[in-house]
Design goal:
There is one protein chain. By secondary structure, the chain is an alpha/beta fold. The protein has helices at residues 17-51, 54-57, 63-74, 80-92, 94-100, 135-142, 166-175, 177-185, 206-213, 225-232, 245-256, 262-280, 285-292, 305-315, 326-329, 336-344, 352-360, 364-380, 385-406; strands spanning 112-115, 118-121, 125-128, 196-197, 237-242, 321-325. Strands 4-3-5-6 form a four-stranded parallel sheet. Strands 1-2 form a two-stranded antiparallel ribbon. The protein is globular. Helix 3 (63-74) crosses helix 4 and helix 14 runs parallel beside helix 19.
Amino acid sequence: MNVCPLCRIGADPLIPWGMMELNRQFCLGFFVATCLLLGLYSYTNNLYLRELALPRLIKSKKEDDLTMEVSLLTEKPMHAADSQIWIRMQQYFPEVIGRLKRDFLPEYKNPCFLEGNRTRCLPYFYLGGAPKCGTTDLWFNLLRHPRVFNNIVKEPHFLKNIPKTYSGTEKYLNHFDTFAKWVSGDPYGAAKSVVGDGSASTLWANYDIVKKAGIQTEGEIPFVFADVIHAIHPKAKVIFILRDPTNRTISDYFLFSRDKSPTHFHAKVVQKIEWFEQCLRSRSLKSCANVLGSRDIPRLGISVYIAHIREWLRVFPKDQVLILRTEDWHYHEDTNLLQDVFKFLDIEALPESNLQPIKKKETLNEIKSKQITQRQSNKHGDILPKTRQLLDEFYAPYNEQLATFLKDKRFLWKT
């Protein structure tokens, strides 16, 4: 007697042949439908692993295995740092990665892409630093070059205020809309031109992106701005200008603090150093400099440059990161420095006649510093010597780490 293996209903001789045939057809249909459902489940489950469950799948993996695991699942080779941020940014900021990571148009030097019939652009370079390091003056001198688009606001602070919505990403793209329209309207004349993002916070405000993601910061911060930019534009050029940490911290404090008395400043420095050292007992330097050190005046963590620069050079190759000192730029005694920046950006040098006005003028930050120092001196007197000594001693080991890391003794700031 034939028995249906699925339904266990036998071909009983008492049952009419038509009913037996109907039963066989039912079993066959049930079997085919089950196979189709299993196939569909396998396919959708694979997509789920790719897009949603990927962080959980690799959570127990060692960091060395991360790139291979992601490459296998996404069928796309990735940089180790890029793979981590890709996973986390897809989870926390899917709009940013999904919309801004594109194949850029090859006819333009600047990263631009088509969104429908509309040309959209991202920055070719980023200029970062810290408050009172001279980013503003360097920015406006870069805009003197005819290949650097100058009809743009310096600091959109997109990463510091990274959005979770379509409208937020649209706002950032709109920031470069004038450039995008100019490039698309003159594809031959403007093809070699570039546009930048001069947000100084690009160097150090990583805690803000962590807050936006809603990530708890009891431990290590999972990603920094360098990861985000590399995920969107791996070939971006990045320029940082750094100032003597002690001088930067003093200048930053008297610019932003309400109580500008030297005694109050000293008390705050003592307090922040104690907090910082306590943080280091349970966290890494990276975490303390970003999460604790960059909040509240005086912002000591901003000037712990090694904690920030090391992250950028973890992600980007050295030939895509240029690090300058404010002291070398400050008086424009050698305009070759500006020419070096143009060379780094892969744009032609300016004629010497174009550089003469730069040599003769004071920097914007120099003028502001003189005004602030004069007001401070008139109202409160000079900074206490013991405060400067305390800051010098606090920053000294981090300056040594930076100088060793960059193989450049100028970053010891001893002269």
